[in-house]
Amino acid sequence: MLLIAGLGNPGPKHEDNRHNVGFMAADEIARRHSFAPWSKKFQGLIAEGRIAGQKVLLIKPQTFMNLSGQSVGEAMRFHKLSPADLLVMYDELDLAPGKVRIKTGGGAGGHNGIRSIDAHCGKEYRRMRIGIGHPGVKEMVTHHVLGDFAKSDREWLEPLLEAIADNADKLVAGDNNGFMNKTSLAVQGTEEPAPKAERPVAPGKSHIRQARPRQNAMQVPETGPMAAMLKKLFGDKG
């Protein structure tokens, strides 16, 4: 059996937080694959189902993020699972919005939910990091993580969650690279094409003025005093 844990904080207050993208992914997998209704167990909400013929248990810890390991560890011990049977989905500040990366083992990277799971379950489990982007200023990190996704984020978030659920069979099969390729393509399809590059405008000139054909720098007169003086200086070269 594969245990898939989506991380987040319980309650309607946190429902749309960036920190809850793990919960969102778990909900979409359960919906897409017609899992049994969510029920309370192991200090969390669980849903059982099958993906590509394999039994899968979804869990959303209700212990709040920092104690996620208590819930996940309890489920693992009950079902006699090893870290190799666990996949954890969670938000990642250091990935661009919509990017997904999967690896086995590694550090917590400052994520308290992962730090808790490491302590209760060991470290050699698969980690699905879902990019939420960085606000760019350290002081804004907490507000960014615990803030709701913006309306504009839905343009990449919804296709990404759908792609995670649609390609869950690749997670079950252990095809991490195939899964990441599929989710990447789903998000790329939502990106707007880059605008065509315009010819740079010289300082102080408008586009209209720059587009006008250039005039000769000086028109040489053929008759008059100026013409006579030029002929004296340069000679009559016809």
Describe this structure in words.
This protein has 238 residues and is an alpha/beta fold. It has 9 helices and 7 strands; from the N terminus they run βαβββαββαβαααααα. It has helices at residues 21-32, 68-78, 112-121, 141-145, 154-166, 168-173, 176-188, 207-211, 225-234; strands at 2-6, 39-41, 44-51, 54-61, 86-92, 100-104, 126-131. Strands 2-3-4-1-5-7-6 form a 7-stranded mixed beta sheet. Helix 1 packs across helix 5 and helix 2 packs parallel to helix 3 (112-121). The longest helix has 13 residues, at 154-166. The termini are far apart. Mean pLDDT is 87; it is low at 192-217.
Keywords:
238 residues; alpha/beta; 7-stranded mixed beta sheet; 9 helices; 7 strands
List the helices and strands and how they pair.
Blueprint: E1 2-6, H1 21-32, E2 39-41, E3 44-51, E4 54-61, H2 68-78, E5 86-92, E6 100-104, H3 112-121, E7 126-131, H4 141-145, H5 154-166, H6 168-173, H7 176-188, H8 207-211, H9 225-234
Parallel strand pairs: 1-4, 1-5, 5-7
Antiparallel strand pairs: 2-3, 3-4, 6-7
Helix pairs in contact: 1-5, 2-3, 5-7
Q: Largest sheet, described in full?
A: 7 strands, mixed
Number of helices: 9
Query: C-alpha Rg, in Å?
Result: 31 Å
Numbering strands along the chain, what is their spatial order in the largest sheet?
Answer: 2-3-4-1-5-7-6
- Shape assignment: elongated
End-to-end Cα distance = 97 Å
Task: Determine the mean pLDDT.
Answer: 87
Structural class: alpha/beta
Helical content stands at 25-40%
How big a fraction of the residues is strand? 15-25%
